[in-house]
Amino acid sequence: MMNMAMREKLGLALIAVALVALPFVLASAGTAWVRITNFAVLFVLLSLGLNIVVGFAGLLDLGYVAFYAVGAYVYALLASPHFGLHLPFWVILPLGAAVACLAGVILGAPTLRLRGDYLAIVTLGFGEIVRIFMNNLSAPVNLTNGPKGISRIDSFQIGPVNFAGSDTFAGLVFSGPIKYYYLLMLVLLAVIVVNRRLQDSRIGRAWVAIREDEIAAKASGINTRNIKLLAFAMGASFGGIAGGMFAAIQGFVSPESFVLNESIMVLAMVVLGGMGNIWGVIAGAMLLSFVPELLRYTVEPAQRALFGKLLVDPEVLRMLVFGAALVLTMRFRPAGLWPETRHRREMNENRA
Amino acid sequence: MDILLQQIINGLTTGSVYAVVALGYTMVYGVIQLINFAHGEVVMIGAMVAFSIITSLAGSSLPPLVIVLAGVMAAVPACMVIGYLLERAAYRPLRHAPRLAPLITAIGMSIVLQHLALLAWGRNPLAFPQIIDNRVFAVGGAAISSVQIAIILLSLTMMGGLSWFVYRTRFGIAIRASAENVHVAGLMGVNADRVIAATFVIGAGLGAVAGVMYGSYYGIAHYTMGFSLGLKAFSAAVLGGIGNIAGAMLGGILLGLVEALGTGYVGDLTNLCAWPGAQGWLAAQCADGGHFVLFGSNYQDVFAFLMLILVLVFRPSGLLGERVSERA
């Protein structure tokens, strides 16, 4: 027994060391790889947020990127020359989360008393509406700068350390992306801890009860509407936090970044990895985050070598992969590649 | 020019297209309670197929009407096959799975179809070739074009035809029985698999024609057109009461009218300069005939969605539908 616990601790320590060393290994291959990894971690954050809604509570949210967009725009508006405001990030990030949460409540309140499918279509529409507003709120008063987007967004600043430039510490060069990597890892750690605590809490069990049988959950005294709303709002605020970090890392936001395809990508990550299982979702998000890079480095040269020109754009191929991932996962492994035990039982036993 | 009448004519045109697309959603929903997210993409593919045929025939000496008919005749069976394959390959295997599964599959199929269309037809929109002599008639201060007349008449004919089919034929009775209760209908000798496949095929066929109509009205077809058209048509189906065939028709036309009138008037209504009591900073903005329009016609796509939310809040069963509880 002692041995097992020891081994587990040793394993965790090894993973932690590997994660700490990772950016320097990647940086030796090129800073671009650190940046790619950072975006992958952002997608992990988004997937964990969506997992609360889709995985824990079983509600299909097809406009999740809207909350990401809300968080990103809150950050962009309050920390850029656009309005001349430069608030520090520890003020804006919670604010972005709160605004996204509010949007989630406004959207969820009318729809969550209805059947789940309505939520799916309403969130789908909401994602589009947010984009339309971002595109058009440049007149009569220029709020969002329209399709041109907002640029020169402040990067994070903790004390004297600015995340935009490089610092040398103990002989190691910490470039901007590397600093963001560590920050993202800290946020990720916090999100994982919160998710795990939620999952094992009263609320988490209520979510699962609703997902598995709403009538039974109601009969057991769960206020299904409020609990569903809570899942929706919580997922939205995680999306808002990820959005704020995205704005800071990217330094630029525009409506282009928040299209439906992004929502679908995050959904595919959650579904493929295994709805409801935190580790599965993380694995799914990492896997699908690196697919585009993989396609770029394999499919494009392969096509050029074989046909002498580019026949299928890797971007298109990427979306085909995501769409197919959704369909095939539901068909052949409905609980995902790394399913949660309880969910696997449920998804399989209902199949006649 | 009479703006009100003009917007009503425009609204009736787009509304009748919405109605025909909404029928595809509502029929499938009526029988298996599934939102077929991919329906909008089927409509888009119908438009793309027809436009390709019409463009390739445009140079020939055939009369324009024959060319357009050939396009439609190619699009309808193509979409019917896609509709059938969708049901067969994606939805049928999941019929007894938890609710979330077919919804996720539907959204996945929609993405796959959209990007296959992108591969087949490219990123640029297809333009409708100038082969029809689109005459414009004056009606009481407004204008109606021959394309608009054709769209409205064709939609009404299709809705009439579908109503006759559903309410007057044996197979129509089977569809309505299955919509009532698919298991009991099965006990009465209705082949549920055939009925379900038929609703997909009929909806896809109607959708193909709707796609051609929508494309020829705006003059272009594009691989992304299915998304917003589908969303609007679904809103129309919910407005009328989802699962209800007459409701989809009514909802579509109403939605078209609301959208056209909303788009036509929202700019004037939200022009703060036209409101009484413009003072201070606002008055300066309005000086020498300036405008201060909060929401212009660029918010056209928002109306359908607002309508959807309002219906869900105040009358979730729609205008003609039965009550939709949390778990029907």
What does this structure look like?
The complex is a heterodimer of chains A (352) and B (328). Chain A has helices at residues 2-29, 31-56, 65-78, 89-111, 116-136, 176-200, 202-212, 214-219, 224-250, 260-273, 278-307, 314-332, 341-349; strands at 79-80, 85-86, 157-158, 161-162, 167-169, 172-174. Chain A has 352 residues and is mainly alpha-helical. Chain A has 2 domains: 10-258, no CATH class; 259-352, no CATH class. In chain A, helix 10 packs across helix 11. Chain A is globular, with a radius of gyration of 21 Å. By secondary structure, chain B is mainly alpha-helical. Chain B has one domain (3-265): ABC transporter involved in vitamin B12 uptake, BtuC (Orthogonal Bundle), CATH 1.10.3470. Chain B has a two-stranded antiparallel sheet. Chain B has a two-stranded antiparallel sheet with strand order 2-3. In chain B, strand 2 (136-139) and strand 3 (142-145) form a beta hairpin. The model of chain B is unreliable at 324-328 (pLDDT under 50). The chains are: A mainly alpha (352), B mainly alpha (328). Chains A and B meet through helix 5, helix 10 and helix 12 of A and helix 4, helix 9 and helix 12 of B.
Using only C-alpha atoms, the radius of gyration of chain B works out to 21 Å
Name the strands of the widest sheet of chain B in spatial order.
1-4
Characterize the biggest β-sheet of chain B: 2 strands, antiparallel
The residue ranges of chain A in which pLDDT falls below 50 over 5 or more consecutive positions are none
The quaternary structure here is: heterodimer
- Rg of Cα set of chain A: 21 Å
Report how far the terminal alpha carbons of chain B are from each other: 49 Å
Helix tally of chain B? 12
Number of helices of chain A: 13
In total, the number of domains of chain B comes to 1
Task: Please give the CATH class of chain B.
Answer: Mainly Alpha
Helix/strand order of chain B, N-terminal first: HHHHEEEHHHHEHHHH
Category by helix and strand content of chain B: mainly alpha
Do you know the CATH topology of chain B?
A: ABC transporter involved in vitamin B12 uptake, BtuC
**Element order of chain A: H for helix, E for strand:** HHHEEHHEEEEHHHHHHHH
What's the mean pLDDT score of chain B? 88
Q: How can the largest sheet of chain A be summarized?
A: 2 strands, antiparallel
Which structural category fits the helices and strands of chain A? mainly alpha
Instruction: Provide the helix percentage of chain A.
Output: over 70%
Shape of chain B: globular
